[in-house]
Amino acid sequence: MASPVLDERSRDVLKSLIQLHIATGAPVGSESLSRTLGRPLSPATIRNIMADLERMGYLDHPHTSAGRMPTDEGYRVYVDSLMSHHPLPSREAAAIATELHASGVSPHEVMDNASHLLSRLSRQVGFVLAPEMQRTSFRHIDLVRLPHPRILVVMVSGAGLVTHKVIEMEEELTQDDLQACANYLNAHFTGMTLATIRARLLDMMGEEAALYDSLLKRVVSVGERAFAATGDDVSVYLDGASNMLEQAGFEDVRRMRSLLRTFEEKGRLVKILNACLSGGGVRVIIGHENRDPELRGMTLVTASYPAQGEASWGLGVMGSTRMEYARVMALVDHVARTLARTLQELRA
To answer: Does domain 8-82 have CATH number 1.10.10.10?
Structure first.
């Protein structure tokens, strides 16, 4: 169903009301609007326009107040067609770039700091989502012997992300055996995705050479376990959950507890964020547009960005629907672009 077309006066009233509500957090009345509108309209005329906007579904009328508040639909119209877009001030943009470049020498450190930056500068929850290891390219593997039957696997992706996990092998292997396996894997599989490597290893299991060549037998056996998908293949960096305690509408203890559980459930959170990041560019998902019920009182502003030769990564801000949309969108866009450049420089 198409949204009603608003005339110029209705657009001005809706825009000013939303801006006032974002600034104050309180329902907005006609008297307040008459003082801030850029056109001479009487409070009575403004009340009539507000009543029309309420009937269209763009405003809500709290029972205890004569003022009105924007609905999710009202915010959607504001973001899509009423809001002015401005880049971040040059001084703030430069400070972000400097802080990200100085934040560390590993992608993990840089992405972790990016989530802190997003949270601090938006006063909401900031997050960065790295791609699943299964969808990234493989650069290097090290295998370290631990007390039998355990082996430490240290893997580096094409983007420079380092992951560690411990696997178990029935056969007791020396460090020289493991080094030979690692050398083979590094020589033959660099640049492939982990999913492609696993498929190749499965093919090798049925090849005659792997049945009789002791090195190939070990490579297939170790590699199949080393490259297996696990629940820890995705890194999500999240900061600022405590900021939600200061937001209007999050005073309810049960709601806040449920929201914090969502943040703690890594697999569920990754699934939610991946759905929001699909499509590329800066996206705004408002209130009931969120698929997950726990987030239907929140807004997510996200940006996805491609790493050269890698699966797309993403980041964003989540918080109250009463957020400074123009500023947060500019912030998310700038941090995404700066982070992409910083990670690319780390790979060089």
So the answer is: yes
CA pair distance 296, 320, nearest whole angstrom: 10
Domain 90-131+234-347 of CATH type 3.30.300.30: no
Residue 300: both structure tokens together: 């997510």
Specify whether the CB–CB gap between 220 and 204 falls below 8 A.
yes
For residue range 123-134, what is the model confidence (pLDDT) as tens digits?
A: 999 988 876 666
Tokens matching residue 168? 């178990």
Give the three-class secondary structure for 272. Answer: helix
pLDDT in tens, 207-243: 666 555 778 888 888 888 888 766 555 578 888 877 7
Residue 281 belongs to what H/E stretch?
A: strand 281-286
Q: Does pLDDT of 252 surpass 80?
A: no
Contact 299, 323 (CB under 8 A): yes
3.40.640.10, 3.30.390.60, 3.50.50.60, 3.20.20.190: CATH of 134-226: 3.30.390.60
Average pLDDT score over residue span 313-335: 92
At residue 163, the 3 state secondary structure works out as strand
C-alpha span between 265 and 91 (Å, rounded): 37
The pLDDT score that the predictor gives to residue 132 is 64
Say which residue the tokens 């006066």 belong to: 9
Q: Which of 228, 230, 237 is nearest to 313 (CA)?
A: 237
- In 56-137, which residue ranges form alpha helices assigned H by DSSP? 72-77, 90-101, 107-122
